[in-house]
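On clarity, I found the account of how folds are encoded harder to follow than it need be. What matters is that the chain and its backbone geometry are given together, residue for residue. For the editor and my fellow referees, an illustration may be useful. For illustration, here is how one protein appears when written out as sequence plus C-alpha cells:

___
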Amino acid sequence: MIAADVTETCGRLRCRVQTATTRAQCWLTIFVTVVMVLCSSAAVAESGPTLKVVEHTWGFDGRVQPGQFNPLSILLDNQTAEAIDASATLQRLQGLLSPSGSQYVQQVFIAPAARRWIQFYPYVANSYQSKWVLSFDGVRIGEFTQPRPAYKLESEQEEQQPQVIILDRVETVSSRPSTVKHLPENIFPPYATATVGLHTVFMDHVPDWELPRQQAFISWLKLGGRLQLLVNRRGEYPRFSGELSDLNQPLKRYSIGNGIVNRMDVQREGLTETMVRNAVVLDSLDDEDEELEEFLQQQKQQGLGVGQLIDVEPSSIDDQFFRHMRELTLPDHAWWLIFLLALCYIGLIFPGCFVLSRNKQLHFLATYSALAGLSVIFSILFLAIGQRGYGESTTLQTLAVARAEDNTHWSVMQWNALFVTSGDSYQATAPDQQSVYSTGETVGQAEAQIIPGNAGGITMQIPPFSSQTFVSRRRLASADWRLQISSIDLQLSGLVNLSIQTGDNFPAAEGNKYLVLAGRRLYEMKYDDRTRQLLLFGAKRRLAEYCQPNFDFQYTTPWGQPQEKDLRSPEERFYDESLPALVQRNLLDDLVNSVVRYELPSDRIRLFIYTALPDEFVISVSADAKSTGRILFAMDLSLLSGDQ
C-alpha cells in the first residue's frame, strides 16, 4: 500500500516536472521568436528604403557588342516615402557567387516614391554569357544575365543583324512598328564613348535631349552611324536645332563625317522588314570578290584556315596585348643568387642542424633555436631579394587606336599597363573626355573602382613591383592635320597612284608606318619631307592575310633552322608586331563580324598612321611614371570631294 502511494506520488511529480519543462520551453520559444522579429525589423529599418528593379535594357536592342563599352540601363522604383542617396555598384560574377573584374560605381539619388533610370557602361570582353550584380551600399538589389551578342563568330554564312533601333518619345507606349526594336530617347547615352555598338537609328521627331546627349548623337553619326529620318503624321520631316541643326539638309541622302543620313518618305507605322534590312546594308556591295574566295579556298586546302585564325573574340586580342605588356615590366631578379641562397638554406638545415643536435655539450633547445633563427633570417633575405627590383621604375605602357570623328576630334580606344615599384592606390583620369574604363579582366577580381564621364576615372590598388592593366575609351580634341588628296588613280585591280598633302601638325617622324586601305587591300605609304606628301610605296596586300594574328610559336623555328638575329629590343618588337592586331581592332568599330571578307566602301579610303604616342594622348595617372607607347590613327578620306 505504501509502495503504491509512493509510486503514485512520484508519477505526479514527474508529470509536474514535465509540464513545467514544457512551459519553460514554450516561453523560451516565444522569447526567441520575439527577439528574432525585433532584430529582423531593426535590420530592415537599418537597411534603408526598399528598391525594386522595374526593367533593364542591355545595349540598344537588348544585345551587347563584344569588345566595346555597352550601356546597361536600369529603371529603379523607390517604393517608400524616403529618399535614396546611395552608392550604386555593378560588378560581374565569375561562376555563381565570386565577383570578377572591377566595380562600376556611381552615386544615385531617387526621390521618395519615384522612379529613375540609371546607366552603367561595362566593358564586355567576349560573347560568353555571364551574370552581373547590382548593389546599393553593399546590399544586392538585382542580378542581370548578359544577353547574346550582336554577332556570332561561328555563324559566318548566317545573316546577322546589327543593333538597329527606332527612338520613342518618353511618353510613348505604342509598340508600333514591330519590325524594329524600340529605345526610349531618355536612355540614349550622354557619352559618345558608349555608342560604338549602335549601327542604325530611325527617327521621326526631334528628341527632347539636353546638350550632352545631342553631342553624343552627332559624334556617333560622324564616326560612321546610319540615321534614317522618317516623316511624322503630318507628312513632315523633323526640324532640328542646336547641335542637331546639321541634320536639316534638304537632300535625299547626305553624309555627316563618316556617317550617312537618309530621308525615307514613310511613317513609322509603315516600316517593313525589307525597309529595315535595306537600311542596314546601305553600303554593301553586290559583287563578290572571286579572287578573295579563291585565296581563302587555297588556304583551307593547305590546312591554314585563315578565316578561323582571324575571326577571334576581341578578348583574345586584349589578352594578347596585356600579356606582353606584363612581360615587358617583369622585375629582372637575380635568380642565381636566389638559387644559391636556397642551396645554403637546405645545407644549413641538413646536415647543419642535424650535426648540431648530435653535440651533447649543447642544450637540446639550441637545435630548435637554430632552426627558428635560420627560418627568420632566410625568410627576410628571400623577401628582400624576391620583392625588390633591379633598376625598375614606375612605367605606363600604352597601345591605342584612334578613330577620326572629324578633323579635330578622335575616338580613342586604349590599352594600358601601369607598373609600380611602390604598393599604393593609383588613379587614372582624363578630365572632360567622356571617358569610360575597365580593367578588362575576364578572370579574377581586380581591386579597382570605376566612375565614368567627364569627371570620372579608375582607382586601382596595385601591390609593389606589379602591374595593373586597364582599357579605356575617350574622346579627345587635337590639331587639324589638313589632309588633302592631291592625286589618286584607283582601278579595279587596286590603287595605282596616290598622293596625300599634309599640314604642319601631321605626325611625321622617323620610324612611323603609313598604310592605306582601299577596298580589301592594304598599301604601304612613305612620307616625303621635302613636299610634305604621303606617296604610294610598296606592294599591295590582302587585308585578310595582313590581319592574321601572330602566335608565340611562330617566333621560333621548330625544325632547327638558324634564325636571323633580331636586333630590336623586346619593347620595339612588341610594338611592331601589335600593328596587325590594332588594324583588326579598328575594324571592330565598323561593327565588322568577319575581317576576312571586310571591304571598305568604294567612296573612301582609310589612312593608317602608326606612331609614338603623343603627349596629349597619354592618360593621366597619379604617379611619376615613365610613359611609352604607340598609337594607330585611322582617318577616312572621301573620294567624292577629294578632301577630308
User: Anything to note?
Assistant: The chain has four domains: 1-46, 51-160+168-278, 283-332+394-405+412-644, 335-387.
